[in-house]
Sequence to fold (333 residues):
Amino acid sequence: MLKLKMLKHAVLVVSAFAGWLYAQPPAAAPAKPDSDAVKALIEKAKKAGGPMWAGEEHFFCEAPRANSPSDPPIEPTKIFDNVYVIGNQGTVAYVISTPDGLLMIDSLSADQTETQLLPGLQKLGLDPSKVKTIVVGHGHADHFGGTPYFQEHYGSKIYIAAADWDLMEHPPAGRGGDKGGKKGPLAVLPKHDQTITEGVPIMLGDFKITPVAVPGHTPGSMGFIFPVKDNGKTHVAAMYAGTILTPGIVSDEGLQTYLKSVAHFKEETKKAKVEVELQNHPLMDPIQAKLDKLQARKKGEPNPFVLGQGNYQKFVDVMSACTEVNIARRKGV
Ligand SMILES: [Zn+2]
Fold:
């Protein structure tokens, strides 16, 4: 009897803790003070990012938070000649216009199709029936949620890495990933469709996305490299579409895999001369500030999403350095 009571208590504590991971936005400060070794790693991360990435460093190393359904919506905006952004401050989808139709990267949550995605397309003057292709960064419901609608109504092709089709179609029992319950049986899945594989470009007409495998957040998380145009000038953009926002819910093995993936992504983005940083969860580098800058932009001024190659690499370096911080905390170093 006593044993049962204790067990119940333990279960309560565990579920209360799990709830805290979602419910407490700024939270995630480590339960115990950082050791000197961890503090040294944080300093390393600060150095890696410099003043430009101080906010990113603070987010990833010190104050991570998950995206939330209540993140304030952003104004749907054309950010490049061929790229539009729709969604909210925690989670966005990008729409790329090509002569052969629209390609969307991610699709928000299912319950945001009617409230954000479709109204956003309409506001931007984009016809949802022209969405030929949706490329999904990883198999969680806040990224693939909108896909069944487009697949059903417009026959849009849905691209997801094989490992994440598997994750969606056979979700692990209990809390397997950061969206836990949300991606369980309640999530409506798209019908099994196209797969994303590193080394196989995703094409829509002449437009090409180069996928980079970045497992860690999920087994099939992907990064994307693709060209964008600003007043006719082409720049190379990248998006790490499987960013770990709150490390507390990722396994030790997952964090190690993630560290390797970030290094791989760094190599690929360096080779591709990436100078534009786009995120599907732009919490570490708030998107609203950039949209404001874009709106106030005068002729000849730079596009706030174009950062330059060196600054893009520093952005990735901070992701890596803060992952090392989180691994060291985990190990109790
Ligand atoms: Zn996710």
